[in-house]
Specification:
The protein has 3 helices and 4 strands, in the order βαββααβ. By secondary structure, the protein is an alpha+beta fold. It has a single domain, classed as Alpha-Beta Plaits, CATH 3.30.70.100. A 4-stranded antiparallel sheet has the order 2-3-1-4.
Length: 118
C-alpha cells in the first residue's frame, strides 16, 4: 500500500445513512457513485466499507457505507471538494442517502514523527 509520505496527512471520512425506505438497488447506486468518486485525482487511498459484524456497545452500525480517503495535504482535500467528479457525485447520488456525517482530521501517521520546525 503506497501511503503518503507527508507528516500532515489529511483524512476525510464520511458515513452515509440511507433513507428509511432505501432498497438494495438504492444502496447499489450509492456504491456505484462512491466507486466513481474514487477516481478523483489527489486521493492517495480510498476505502469503501460497510458496518463490520463486531458487537460492542460503542459501535455505530446504522450507516450504509463508510467512505474513507487519505490526502497528502489539506490543499489536496480542498481540490477534491471542488473537483467535477465530486460535484457530480453530490448532484447525482444525494437522493440515495438521508444524511451524512463527516469527519476530517489532519496529523501524522502513527509512528511517524512530524516534520521539525527548523
Amino acid at each position: 500500500m503506497d501511503l503518503p509520505a507527508s507528516s500532515e496527512l489529511f483524512v476525510h471520512h464520511v458515513l452515509f445513512y440511507p433513507k428509511a425506505n432505501a432498497t438494495d438497488a438504492d444502496k447499489a447506486k450509492l456504491l456505484e457513485g462512491l466507486r466513481m468518486l474514487a477516481g478523483v485525482p489527489g486521493i492517495k487511498l480510498a476505502h469503501i466499507g460497510t458496518p463490520a459484524a463486531t458487537n460492542r456497545e460503542v459501535i455505530e452500525r446504522s450507516y450504509a457505507y463508510s467512505w474513507l480517503c487519505l490526502f497528502e495535504s489539506a490543499a489536496d482535500e480542498q481540490a477534491y471538494q471542488v473537483h467535477p467528479l465530486h460535484d457530480a457525485f453530490r448532484n447525482d447520488y444525494a437522493v440515495y442517502w438521508d444524511h451524512v456525517v463527516i469527519y476530517d482530521a489532519i496529523g501524522a501517521l502513527a509512528g511517524r514523527e512530524p516534520a521539525s520546525a527548523a
